[in-house]
Specification:
alpha/beta, 7 domains, four-stranded parallel β-sheet, Rossmann fold, BRCT_dom, BRCT_dom_sf
């Protein structure tokens, strides 16, 4: 009992937001949420394109990808983002695992690798383990189902033979693979390093190296695409976009697009549930070409999504949100070159297809010149590997020969990187580095310092969590988009073309009255240089100076109200940290009436916060563990489902996903869904979904006995009684199929996992049959030792249908079973479903399949 209580409290301090994506379905998310809640956590499921809940509510985010809008804010707020496997690791260890080892961040490029080591020297082993752990991977001392790679020098080691004997899906690689990955800082293909016949040991030095198409940069190889993607041109054929749902998009005048194209883009956004605006303060997304101008600086400082037209087309094409910082050419370009790149002449070698186009455009964006041919006047050769005539010529001419990482990281850091760095001159023997092109991300801190600098670090919009770390920070926080704007932030197309001083947008947030008054507002150094190259301390335009002064004065006037407003924005029941001390040098002096309001707010804060905590702690105990299937009101309505589940939990009803843990099953009728069929084996109370509807409507826990599920039509159709089935289940105690050996073809309709769960719920043993599995049953051996002579142990069943690809396996199945002196039975899945639904054994004869039946069906 103590162990169970400890287990339930494992996540008691955690509130987890589970983020759905194409790799994490809503059903999987609900299963994860159920496991977390049963172990003490609070959970929220987020399914795009719904509005993301406030980050401050969560301690962890669970996602298979970093492609969700608040990832950058979560990183800044130090909220860990973990993959679903983190939950399993925590439960296995009985403690919270290090979230870094389970991060989906691709910068931790070994985060999908679980290694174990074979017969390699101790020093190499420690170095490899350390490198893998540092780059997001995991080490396992033993071979397990989670292991993905065995590091070994030979395929004849004990671990390698074990993997080969059990045909485990584990790659056996040389240590050289990790060495090359760590040197490059990228994960490359394992195939040239895979035992028993690694290519790097047998290939001739001058043998051609294969090239592979890099799909990661498709749609991101240029900053200025020529036209709309063909997949979104016709609104009649394309599926409805959701990526712009409830989003406001601003198209800057510097894009230089015509009225017709602009109208097409606006129509696509509007059809997808979004809108187009010309006011940067109201926009969620800014699309522009260059890293300058008033809208760019304002949107960037307010942490809005800023991308170029290529990024916008990418969102339209894939209907999935990605950060514009993820790919270098999805972000606006600079009008000026990277310092040191002007005059460089760069040629490419061994890059093909989209990767080559991407690098050509990237060279142009740096300010250098990209040459189609290599000449002695070139300065650099960027190559994917060292085996080419261009590489030989470049070395003879004394040119710099580097890989694309030098180019990408120079652009990302906006600084010419040294060609002497070993990472930029390393070329693995049998790898074409074109496969890892486009994996470099832009650095937000570099962009801020270079293109939209603040007067101080406090001027940058703070993350939600940091805004509540200190009293001083708490008084004036960063929700600048809701709290303040300059006197007029509405930007017309003509105004956006006029260059503005980069420091001309003062901020009251994060700056006290004294610090604003005591420091001059200045534009960045590059903007203060005149044509003679000297600094110009006085703005050239008197009207610009006046507008700055007017804006500053206006912000000073409203600063006290901003401070109070920001406090109220963070209230649960009052101000979290109270006000400033009288001794604070930058304390805002308020009138007596405002002081009284502030003091009253603080008193309400303490009382309301205490009350909120008391209500949270007094959440009613769980009296019903409810498994739900077929509830139509939640279909495609994630917000309502999450809201209803929270309301049910407040009534003492916990919605679970595992049939083993349910005390009640709710369904609109008798269904043959996995949830319904599995649940019957545990004999729960079965109620109509009207029970859920009425509990939610009346906001009280009703008696489930008043809502029994009655479906005489289905009972007649399937030939069983639901009440009798529940009684039988209680007598069977999950042992109805005990001793039964059941196989299932891999291509069975409904999936092997669904039928395996039904067999497991009823005590049987289910295995996948691919036509090459040897017959072995550990359960049979233990049952034979008991001396019970049951007929089921003399028959082995195969769940199949009469489609040709499955019929081909029948002969091998019969041969396998007959070799063990048993009788093979090939049956339809209805045999298993009828047994599980009625909780009684049915003879197999009425369900058997034969080759004659298959021929007739053809």
């Amino acid at each position: 009992m103590a162990d169970q209580e400890g287990r339930l409290q494992l996540f008691s301090q955690c509130k987890v937001c589970i983020i759905c994506s194409k790799d994490l379905s809503a059903d999987t998310a609900h299963q994860l949420a159920s496991m977390l809640e049963e172990n003490g956590a609070d959970t929220v499921i987020y399914e795009p394109p719904a509005t993301f809940p406030p980050l401050t509510e969560f301690t962890h985010l669970m996602s298979c990808t970093i492609d969700f809008p608040t990832f950058e804010a979560a990183s800044e707020a130090l909220i860990p983002v973990v993959k679903p496997y983190w939950l399993q690791a925590c439960l296995q260890k009985r403690k919270l695992a290090n979230p870094r080892q389970y991060s989906p961040d691709p910068r931790l490029f070994l985060n999908d690798v679980v290694i174990t080591c074979g017969d390699i020297p101790g020093g190499d082993k420690e170095a490899i383990i350390g490198g893998v752990l540092a780059k997001g991977g995991i080490y396992s001392a033993k071979i397990s189902q989670q292991v993905t790679h065995l590091v070994d020098l030979t395929a004849d080691s004990d671990k390698a033979r074990l993997i080969a004997g059990k045909k485990l899906n584990i790659k056996i690689v040389l240590p050289h693979w990790f060495d090359d990955c760590l040197k490059l800082g990228r994960r490359i293909d394992e195939r040239p390093y895979t035992l028993p016949d690694p290519e790097i040991l047998r290939a001739a030095p001058d043998a051609p190296i294969r090239s592979s198409e890099n799909r990661d940069i498709i749609g991101a190889s240029t900053t200025d695409p020529a036209a709309l993607p063909s997949s979104v041109k016709s609104s009649d054929t394309q599926p409805k976009l959701t990526v712009f749902q409830d989003k406001s998009v601003m198209l800057c005048a510097d894009l230089g697009i015509g009225a017709r194209l602009s109208g097409s883009i606006e129509e696509i956004i509007n059809n997808g549930g979004g809108s187009v605006t010309s006011d940067v303060s109201k926009a969620d997304i800014l699309i522009c070409r260059y890293r300058d101008g008033f809208p760019y600086r304002i949107a960037s400082r307010l942490n809005k999504d800023v991308g170029n037209i290529s990024w916008l087309y990418h969102l339209m094409t894939y209907n999935t949100w990605t950060s514009p910082l993820r790919r270098l050419l999805h972000y606006p370009v600079s009008r000026s070159e990277i310092p040191g790149f002007k005059g460089l002449k760069i040629s490419l070698s061994n890059y093909v297809g989209e990767a080559r186009a991407y690098l050509e455009n990237l060279i142009t964006a740096t300010g250098a010149e990209c040459t189609k041919t290599l000449k002695q006047e070139n300065t650099h050769l960027v190559t994917a590997h060292g085996n080419s005539e261009k590489c030989t010529a470049a070395k003879e001419w004394g040119l710099h020969v580097v890989n694309h990482l030098w180019l990408e990281e120079s652009y990302a850091k906006w600084k010419l990187q040294s060609v002497s760095d070993p990472r930029y001159t390393h070329f693995p023997k049998r790898t074409n580095l074109g496969e890892v092109v486009g994996h470099t991300r832009l650095d937000k801190s570099v962009l801020e310092s270079m293109f939209f600098p603040s007067e101080s670090t406090a001027q940058t919009p703070a993350s939600p969590r940091r805004a509540m770390q200190t009293k001083e920070q708490n008084t004036v926080t960063a929700k600048a988009s809701t709290s303040m704007q300059p006197p007029s932030t509405k930007v017309t197309e003509s105004e956006s073309e006029i260059p503005h001083p980069q420091g001309a947008t003062p901020r009251a947030i994060g700056k006290s009255r004294k610090s604003i008054d005591g420091q001059k507002l200045q534009t960045p150094v590059r903007s203060r240089l005149t044509s003679e190259g000297k600094e110009n301390d006085t703005p050239s335009s008197t009207s610009s100076r006046k507008s700055k002064d007017a804006a500053t004065a206006r912000l000073h006037e409203i600063a006290p109200d901003i401070a109070l407003y920001e406090k109220e924005m963070k209230r649960v029941g009052g101000v979290i940290y109270g006000g400033r001390r009288k001794s604070d040098e930058d304390r805002i002096m308020l009138s007596n009436s405002k002081k009284r309001r502030s003091i009253e707010a603080e008193e309400e804060s303490e009382e309301d916060t205490t009350e909120a905590k008391r209500q949270k702690k007094s959440k009613p105990a769980v009296t019903i563990h409810l498994l739900i299937t077929g509830y139509q009101k939640w279909v495609k309505n994630q917000k309502k489902e999450d809201s209803d589940k929270r309301q049910l939990r407040d009534l003492g009803i916990l919605v679970v996903q595992d049939a083993r843990r349910c005390s009640h099953l709710a369904a609109p009728s008798i269904l043959r869904t996995p949830k319904f069929v599995n649940a019957i084996a545990y004999g729960p109370a079965i109620v109509s979904v009207d029970f859920i509807t009425q509990c939610l409507k009346k906001d009280e826990l009703l008696d489930p006995a008043d809502f029994p599920l009655k479906d005489e039509a289905s009972e007649k159709k399937y030939g069983f009684s639901l009440e009798e089935a529940k009684m039988n289940a209680k007598q069977n105690k999950n042992k109805l199929l005990r001793g039964y050996q059941i196989y299932c073809v891999e291509t069975i309709r409904g999936g092997f996992d669904a039928f395996k769960s039904i067999v497991d719920a009823n005590g049987g043993e289910c295995s996948l049959f691919r036509g090459r599995v040897s017959y072995r049953s550990q359960r049979e051996e233990s049952d034979e030792s008991s001396g019970d002579d049951d007929h089921s142990r003399k028959e082995v069943y195969l769940l199949s249908s009469n489609v040709p690809e499955q019929v081909k396996l029948w002969g091998r199945f019969r041969q396998m079973v007959q070799s063990t002196d048993k009788t093979p039975r090939i049956v339809r899945v209805d045999w298993l479903l009828d047994i599980a639904m009625s909780q009684t054994i049915h003879a197999a004869e009425a369900y058997e399949l034969t080759e004659e039946m298959a021929e007739k069906s053809e």
